[in-house]
Write a structure and sequence with these properties.
This protein is α/β, with parallel strands linked by helices. It has 15 helices and nine strands. The chain has three domains: about 30-130; about 130-235; about 245-464, Vaccinia Virus protein VP39 (Rossmann fold, 3-Layer(aba) Sandwich). The radius of gyration is 73 Å and the shape is rod-shaped.
């Protein structure tokens, strides 16, 4: 403003500037723009200018441009106006569409300006966290820049994990197959074990049933034999009552050292004990056993080792003293008086080895009869004596003992046992003669077996 300007002009300029500012504020209020809390609001001025130009073009449709005066120009103007009026029906819809488009554009501008005005009314406390948004934008740019690398690493890691997973699945499948095989094998082994146990139990039960069957059959057999024996005995003559003693034999006793005699001609105690050991199985299950003519006590010691109560009877004082010193139950007594004092059924086993050949013939029967009374039902008795069927016994052992009277043949002894109520008789011959006299091997086999067989024999029987 020039210094020569008058006060009136200055006042007029100030009023004009004030009017311009107010117009600008009203325009900005209607069409806000600029910055809002750090954000730049959109400027719709170009849209307004384009809208104004479009409005001017819409207003010019159907009008004729003015021309200079004159007859020709006036005629041209008249033709133009006539053509414009004639085309009015043709452009009417276009004009209406243009007006509707401009109104729509005005409504859109008004809505956008309303958004800007609303944003300007939001208090500053709702200012968005720009720094955080910038930081997040930077992070997003970093993520976008590293995404390819991350994707490749992720795909590689995914591949490795997939391989490890497949390997783990394969290992689990192999372990499952192995575990299934082990379980199947254990199941088969358990089934086989149960089958074996079942077969074993079945076999044991079958064996027990067979044992009970044979035991019952044995009882039936014993009862049957007892009945037969009673019937046969009732029709036989009764044996005469005779008495006697179990003594050294003969009318005149021989006063010698019988212990020394036994060691010299019969054999030492360990040898005889080993020989008697084969008889112990016959007395299994017995509770009380009698040893007639116990001698040095070989059989008594065998019974003592097996926990079977055994009593020995002998006439020689030196034998009784020897056995008493060893803690055995041995008594010096007459066997007939001893058996009579014990009473019927006092024993369930009687052993008599190398004794009956010392007795007179009538005393042998009395001894067998007395033993039959002293034994319980089912009791076992064993007699061992020289075998007169073997002729070699008379040239070797029998007449070496001065107390021997007469040998007892096996058939006679078995007859006595049957008469005394015994059954299930067995005879076992042993100590073959050709073992002591090798020259007998040169004889024919039939002759050797018929006349030179076992030097001794043992008879076994059970009380019916």
């Amino acid at each position: 403003m020039s210094e020569k300007t008058s006060p009136r002009q200055r006042t007029h300029e100030e009023e004009l500037e004030q009017a311009i500012r107010e117009i600008r504020e009203r325009v900005l209020a209607r069409y806000p723009s600029g910055m809002w809390h750090g954000l730049e609001l959109p400027d719709f001025t170009p849209v307004l200018e384009a809208r104004d130009q479009a409005s001017a073009k819409v207003a010019a449709i159907g009008r004729v441009n003015p021309r200079q005066g004159g007859v020709l120009n006036g005629l041209i103007q008249g033709v133009k106006k006539t053509i414009a009026r004639g085309l009015g029906w043709f452009v009417r819809d276009q004009v209406e569409f243009n007006h509707a488009t401009v109104r729509s554009l005005d409504a859109v501008l008004e809505g956008l300006n309303a958004i800007n005005r609303t944003l300007r009314t939001i208090p500053p406390r709702f200012e968005p966290p720009m720094e955080e948004m910038r930081r997040e934008a930077a992070e997003l740019r970093d993520i976008r820049s590293n995404w390819i690398v991350w994707k490749r690493e992720w795909e590689e890691r995914l591949g490795r994990n997939e391989i490890q997973f497949l390997r783990a699945v394969a290992d689990l499948q192999a372990a499952y197959a192995q575990r299934t095989a082990v379980l199947e094998q254990r199941f088969e082994e358990r089934v086989e074990g149960q089958h074996r146990d079942f077969e074993g139990a079945l076999e044991r039960a079958n064996f027990a049933m067979q044992q009970r069957f044979w035991a019952e059959l044995e009882k039936v057999r014993v009862e049957y034999e007892r009945i037969i024996y009673a019937e046969i005995r009732s029709v036989r003559q009764q044996p005469a009552e005779v008495g006697g003693r179990l003594s050294g034999g003969g009318d005149v006793p021989v006063d010698i050292d019988w212990v020394h005699f036994a060691n010299k001609f019969r054999g030492d105690a360990p040898k005889i004990r080993e020989h008697f050991a084969k008889y112990t199985e016959r007395f299994a299950g017995c509770e009380r056993v009698l040893d007639i003519g116990c001698g040095r006590g070989e059989f008594l010691s065998l019974m003592q080792e097996r926990g079977i109560a055994a009593v020995g009877v002998d006439l020689h004082e030196e034998n009784i003293a020897l056995l008493a010193g060893q803690g055995m139950d041995a008594r010096r007594a007459d066997v007939f008086e001893f058996l009579a004092g014990e009473g019927p059924g006092a024993f369930d086993g009687i052993f008599c080895a190398q004794v009956i050949e010392h007795l007179p013939p009538g005393m042998v029967w009395k001894l067998v009869e007395a033993c039959g009374r002293a034994l319980r039902r089912g009791g076992v008795i064993v007699f061992e004596t020289p075998n007169p069927e073997c002729l070699a016994i008379f040239s070797t052992h029998f007449y070496l003992d001065p107390s021997h009277t007469r040998p007892v043949p096996p058939a006679l002894l078995c007859f006595y046992l049957e008469e005394a109520g015994f059954g299930r008789l067995e005879v076992e011959r042993f100590a073959m003669a050709f073992e002591e006299r090798p020259e007998l091997r040169e004889l024919p086999a039939s002759l050797r077996e018929g006349f030179f067989g076992g030097l001794d024999y043992a008879a076994f029987a059970r009380k019916l």
